[in-house]
Amino acid sequence: MNNIKKDNTEEKILDAAQTVFIRKGMDGARMQEIANEAGINKALLHYYFRSKQKLFEAIFKQVFKQIFPDIKAFIHAEIPIEKKLGIFVEKYIDLLMKNPYLPSFILQEIHRDPEFLASVIKGQGIDLHELFTMLGKEMEAGNIRKMDPRELMINILGLSIFPFAAKPLMQLIFFDNDKKAYKEFLKQRKETVKDFILNSILLKA
Amino acid sequence: MNNIKKDNTEEKILDAAQTVFIRKGMDGARMQEIANEAGINKALLHYYFRSKQKLFEAIFKQVFKQIFPDIKAFIHAEIPIEKKLGIFVEKYIDLLMKNPYLPSFILQEIHRDPEFLASVIKGQGIDLHELFTMLGKEMEAGNIRKMDPRELMINILGLSIFPFAAKPLMQLIFFDNDKKAYKEFLKQRKETVKDFILNSILLKA
DNA sequence: ATTTTGTTTAACCAGATGGTCAAAATTAGA
DNA sequence: TCTAATTTTGACCATCTGGTTAAACAAAAT
C-alpha cells in the first residue's frame, strides 16, 4: 500500500510538531528540534509541509479544535440547567487535565497572530446563538439569575482555564511548588468550580 | 551632571524593551527592533545591559512587580469583607485595563522559564500567610462561605485576568470582534465580577 | 587647551535557522 | 528483473540574529 508509510511519516511529523510547538510556541520552536523529535531528516518536514508557517498552521488548527468540547450536547440535553453547567465544567476540566499545555499555547498564539485566529474560527462555524437562547430561556424561567450570557460563559471559561494557564505561577505562590498538591487541587476543581458558579447564579426558591 | 544623559538613555532602552518584549515575548523580540524603538544603536543595548537575556530579566522583574496590587492594604483595612473583595477586584481590573498586555506576557513567560520565575518570586517576599489568616477569620465568623482560601483567590484572579489574557479570542467569538464593545464589557467587569463572587460566597443571614 | 573618561556608532563576525537541491534509497509497477 | 515514481537524506545556501570591536564623538577633569 502506498499510504501506509506516507501516513506514518506524516503522522510522526504532526505528533512531533505538536509536541514542540506547544512546548515552545511558534517563535521558540525550531524545525531541527521537530525533526529530531520525529526521528527524521529536517528536509522531510519541508517535503510534507512546505514551510514552518504551514506546518504550524496545520498544528494550530488541529489543536484549536480540541478546545471546543461537545457544545451541541450541552445545549440541547433535556436536563436541568445546573446539571448542564456541571457537566460542561467537568468535561472542560477533564480536557484540560489531559492537555494541560493547551491553554498557554492557545493564549500565546492568539496574541501573536490574531488574523490567523480569525480565519480559523470562521472555518469552524461555531454557533453561539443557540447557546445564548438556551441560557436566556433559563433566565426568563427564573432558574438562574439574569445576566449577560456572554459574561456567564466567560466566567465559566475563566474559572476553568485560568488555573491551567497560570499553573507555574499559581503552583509556586499558593502551593509552595508542590506538584502533586496542585494536581490534586485541579482535580477537585471539577467540583469546586461547579459549586462556585451555581452558588452564584442559582436562584433558590 | 553625569547621570542626566545616562539615565535618559537607559530609560529609553527600558521603555523600548518593555514595549517590544511585551508585544513579542522573549523569543519573538529582536534586539534590533528594541534599538529602533528606542531610537539608538543596537550596540548600545549591549553597552547598558550585557545581553538580551539580562535585558529581558530586567524587564520581566519590572513588569512582574506591577501584577501585585497593594495587597497589604487589602488585608488590613478595617472594612467588611465584601467591601474588601470589591476593592481588590476593582483595583486589579483597573490595573489590567491600563496594561491589557500584561497577562498574556506573564502567562507566556512563566511557562517559558519557570526557574527564573521562581527566583523572581523569592526575591519579592510575598507573604500570603496574613491574607489566608484574614480570610480564615471571615469564614469562622460566618461572613463568607467556608472554602479553601487558595481556591477563592485563584477564582478571583481567574475571573479578573482571563478576559484580558484571552482577549482576541473572546472578543472574536462573543463580540463579533467589536473592539469598543469588548472594552466596555471589560469596564463593566469591575462590577459584574464583584457581584459574581459575592453572590457565590456571601452568606446572607 | 589637553588629557581622560564616558557614550555612541558603523562595520563586522560567528553561529543559528529556515529552506533548497541533487543524489541516494526505497517502493511500486511493468 | 528492470524501470519509474516516491520517499529520505546529507550537504549546502542565504539570511537573520545576538554579540563584539575599534574608532568617532561628547563631556569632564586637569
UniProtKB/TrEMBL annotation, chains A, B:
The keyword Transmembrane helix appears for this protein: yes
TM helices/strands, residue ranges: 152-175
Domain HTH tetR-type: 7-67
Keyword flag Coiled coil: no
Keyword tags: DNA-binding, Membrane, Transmembrane, Transmembrane helix
Any Pfam family: TetR_N
GO molecular function (one): DNA binding
DNA-binding region of this protein: 30-49
UniProt name for this protein: Transcriptional regulator, TetR family
Organism: Tangfeifania diversioriginum
Secretion signal span: none
